[in-house]
Specification:
The complex is a heterodimer of chains A (320) and B (384). In chain A, 69% of the residues lie in helices and 1% in strands. With 320 residues, chain A is mainly α. A two-stranded antiparallel ribbon of chain A has the order 1-2. Classes of the chains: A mainly alpha (320), B alpha+beta (384). Chain A: Its main location: membrane.
Chain lengths: 320, 384
Amino acid sequence: MTRDWWKHLILILGALVVIAPFYMMLSYSLKSPGEIDRGEGGFFGRQEMMIDERCVALRDPNRDEVASAAKRFPGLTDREIRDALITEAEADCAMRPAVFNYTMAFTEAPLLRYLLNGVIVTVSIFVIQVLVALPAAYALAKLRFWGREAVFSLVLFCLLIPVHAIALPLYIMLAKLGLTNTYAALVVPWTISVFGIFLMRQFFMTVPDDLIDAARMDGMTEFSIVWRVMLPTAVPALLAFAIFSVVAHWNDYFWPRIVVTGSRELFTPPLGLREFKGDGDGSFFGPMMATATVIVCPLIVAFLLAQKRFIEGITLSGMK
Amino acid sequence: MADLHIDGVVKSFGETQVLKGISLDIRHGEFIALVGPSGCGKSTLLRIIAGLESQSAGDIVIAGRSVAGVRAADRNLSMVFQSYALYPHLSVADNIAVPLRMRTMGAVQRLPLVGRWMPGAAERNREIDAEVRKAASTLEIETLLDRKPGQLSGGQRQRVALGRALVRDPAAFLLDEPLSNLDAKLRVQTRGEIAELHRRLGATFIYVTHDQVEAMTMSSRIAVMMEGQILQCDAPDLVYEDPEDIRVAEFIGSPKINILPAELNGGSLRVLDRDIARLTRVADQPGIRLGLRPEALRLSGADSVLTGVVAHHENLGSEVFAQIEVPGLSERVVLRADPSARRRLGLGATVGLDFDIGDALLFDTSGKRLRPVIEAARAAHQVA
């Protein structure tokens, strides 16, 4: 233990570097704009009541309202009634900074809609990726056919192509097909994952041939072997792939930014961050960070659940 | 009734020929052991029978119907694998039910979740359940039905694999070294159980093993395979007592048969420069070999054919095996003796060994059995 203290020190430093941005995100999502600007208030901020200037501005009383409120304030001048109304509005619009930030996140932008879009897009991508990758990986790992090695080399070669290099041709193809600004544009380019095929192929290589032969003897077709035998044994590998796939596409900012240009209806969660990117009048960091926190939460929850499944795993000892 | 004929089956992987024209007729209800050293092609032959591998030439006929081009599932055979190959994600009951489900239920009825609500599915499921229970009770694994394969011991998994094979009524059972992953004690026990199961079911069993003891104890006929050929296919006692080929004689029997160099010269059979017997009606041959089972040798006096020094001995309680170093022989001679002879077989003791020429097996230079010779030898011996 004492001999290895430096290892722990390095690991702790590394962990701090990784956690720092998350710390800032969480902290900013709780603080008032003033505290964020001045960099004070520690992690939670002082959580003093703050007044939402925009809320007050929206309730700025006009002449009719002042006139109709005259009954409630007998004997006061119009000016005094107006001041009283503003004070009332300020009281109504006062809230804790944390509440303010998170309320803003959900009310200013249709964040729930964005989250739903994110779920639709990532789940569609993952499901189709699995539908394509499992049979492909099974064929590459377990079937003997002419040109198998060549096809597998192509898969490996495709792993080397960076997404950004083919983004423009992809965009043009989608545009010519009239698919920009649709869910299809967000999903289709990612449905064939060479990484998924590669990963599952490597896993299938470890599945004993006897198991597949047993399934054949039991009367299964190759297609049922993929879904009834390979899929259940591959759950741990699929979870690993799911983490890569879901994290990559849930967090993707680049591709949705390119193909979703008009309607906010199709925005994915990361695009939602743009809502608080005030161009001229400064950024709303509090609500922006609150949005970021909300976006990250489903992933963290999903990971914690998947991690438990990882450890449980499906033991392959039945075959040994 | 399902007879199984293997007709001139050849299998080549590229240039190498793994099976060189195998022919074998298996009658319904037989227990055939395919035995041979690893790499002799016995597993390949079994996989070809099963339909998991295709032959390069030749034909397999099951119940009078050629199965060339028929896929494994449609040949109505079941197979037990060395690794058991149980589905790790299914319970024991589901594992056993798979072959029935795949055969008797439609694709829609098999769908997960919704399948059970399809018309007829509930009734089929009940029937399958009953058959699974029947198979489980045959193998005494009813208590394990809800467990996953990962929670079972090797012997229990082996039974489940057997259960999956016998739950439907196949034309033949194919077993690929099903005992080799079990420990020695369990292997002996399971050996007896499989033989008993065969008698009870009266079905055809084709059993691949490299262990000659398994082959000897369980089968009605043994097919000894070497280098892609069946050297001999006979009942276990015939294969042991009357081998056609020196390789069969050497492979079957533990401890191994003693092989002594011999020659035929002027009608006289000579071993270690001593005349053993006079033979008539045989051509002279140098470099023949004489095979003697350990139990064919007996201890004798000083003036014996073989005289040597005890180099090692193993007392098994009911019998004693002694390895005897005989000058002039490259390999030690193994003798099986009665425990009463233990005192004479102390390490370093000099002993004489004798045998009856009638118990000796003679093989020619190429390893083929010399039958007329031994009969002539016996006659000559009696005359002398």
